[in-house]
Amino acid sequence: MAVRLNSQIAKVVLMVALLLVSLQGFVWHRLLQSHHDQGHEHPMLAGARGLSSRRETIIGSQEDVRENNNNQQQQQSRNRLPDERRLHRRRQPSIEKQKLSLNIHPPKVATARTVSPYLKHPLFEGKERLLTILHEAHFFNDSAAEFFQDDARVEALAKQLPSWETVTNRLGGESPVIEGLETCETYQKLVPPIDRFLGVAGLFATGTNLLASLLVANCQNDERIRAGLGAGVRWQVNWGKHSPARYRMENKIDQKLKNEIFLPVVSIRHPYSWMQSLCRQRYSTHWFHNAKEHCPNLVPNDIDRKWFKFVQKYGKRGVKSLYNDPWLSDNLLDTANFTLDSEVVPVRVRYKSGTLYHDSLPDMYNSWYHEYLDADFPRLVVRLEDLVFHAKEVVTKVCTCMGGSVRDDFNYITETAKVGDEHIHGKQEDRTNMIKTFTKWHAENRTKNMTSEDVAYAKESLDADLLKMFQYSHPSKENP
Ligand SMILES: *[C@@H]1O[C@H](CO)[C@@H](O)[C@H](O)[C@H]1NC(C)=O
Ligand SMILES: *[C@@H]1O[C@H](CO)[C@@H](O)[C@H](O)[C@H]1NC(C)=O
Ligand SMILES: *[C@@H]1O[C@H](CO)[C@@H](O)[C@H](O)[C@H]1NC(C)=O
Ligand SMILES: *[C@@H]1O[C@H](CO)[C@@H](O)[C@H](O)[C@H]1NC(C)=O
């Protein structure tokens, strides 16, 4: 046991040394607030959607365009959509100021060392890594010693935390997966330092807001900062974060910037978990389904056919009289090429630059990610899951890829935390919610409400190479 513990500790210390990151300002945020979504949202994403809420992308083409075009419709979307440009503008000055000063001053607390004695606590055997992350997130209010004097609290915490092994079983391995690091050199050759931008991209519900928050809070292009031009980190790529790669040259959010200067950082999420999430909030993805009765529905069954007939018979009024919720109604009223003969539920997705049709949700997933993976321009693809359990490593590698630097004082800041004031370490509530994520994340039933036919279809249709590349495996009995 001693040997194992030592190697665990050595691993942690080594990681820290390698990253040259001092572990101080780790702020967990609203991403982990689950009240936002009435308890339906996956803990990892709850709040990562930021200002978005379940109702924001309600039905219909107008909303869809807005979802994909939020930068041009600020007025209407002010209270409804995650208007990232507005957020960015509001926050950027203080963050940049903060970064400049933080990079000059030495870190205030050497946190990794302070928790190390407690890593040997028998109740935390196999949970050392999570304990370390919690500590970095200032869960112990910088006084682990005090906390560890209270046996009852220590016991309760130990009970709540899963083992690192449980976590890595779900993650598919010990290390984060970052695809595309081999394209960094090309990017740096193509784009002069002063012009370099990181921009976030990703399919709906894959953690693009979380990724953007982490990058904005921790990474900067020093050349641009020195020239007074900003940090060179954007909430989305200039062609729109959800836009498929084929539209890279077709849309410009910031007219002054060339789209080619962006290094896209693309987020991906376990496809089954992604489908579960789309059942809670589908954004501008349309497919015929009743979210309350069968979702994800890949292979239509009697429930789907029953509803299709219902819609044919009773129409809009019938549906609306049953479901006053425009979301639920729209998922039925917009049949999106579904018919009684459909063997698979087809999908239509509206993007700003065009509408795409897919055979199914897995087909949409394969196709969206393949466009980025097969692209002939430099890009990185990172996993949402790693943004929770390997945030520092992922952010550091991504930032280095552009030639940028990561702040000394790694920070998980997002919308709620204001840089430079007392919230620098995140709200207490956020830190408590982090425990909820740690406790719940690995226990999600990723095939919830799927029939065996749905699961069989997902297994045969999800691209095996894509899954392998990101170490995602199909849910199993042992790992549901
Ligand atoms: C940290 O401080 C807050 C506010 O004083 C308190 O509610 C919380 O329980 C403390 N956390 C720990 C782990 O002691
Ligand atoms: C679905 O319907 C639209 C318009 O009705 C059509 O343009 C499109 O080709 C159809 N897609 C498929 C896959 O059948
Ligand atoms: C997950 O959900 C499926 C479908 O709803 C159900 O059959 C299965 O028993 C659940 N698995 C676990 C481990 O709860
Ligand atoms: C999905 O959920 C609905 C409502 O909870 C339930 O009626 C239905 O049987 C579920 N289907 C499966 C396959 O779990």
TrEMBL record:
Bias (Low complexity) ranges: 68-79
Domain of life: Eukaryota
Annotated segments matching region Disordered: 61-101
Positions of transmembrane segments: 12-31
Keywords: Membrane, Transmembrane, Transmembrane helix
Transmembrane helix is among the record's keywords: yes
SUPFAM superfamilies: P-loop containing nucleoside triphosphate hydrolases
Protein name as catalogued: Uncharacterized protein
Organism this protein belongs to: Seminavis robusta
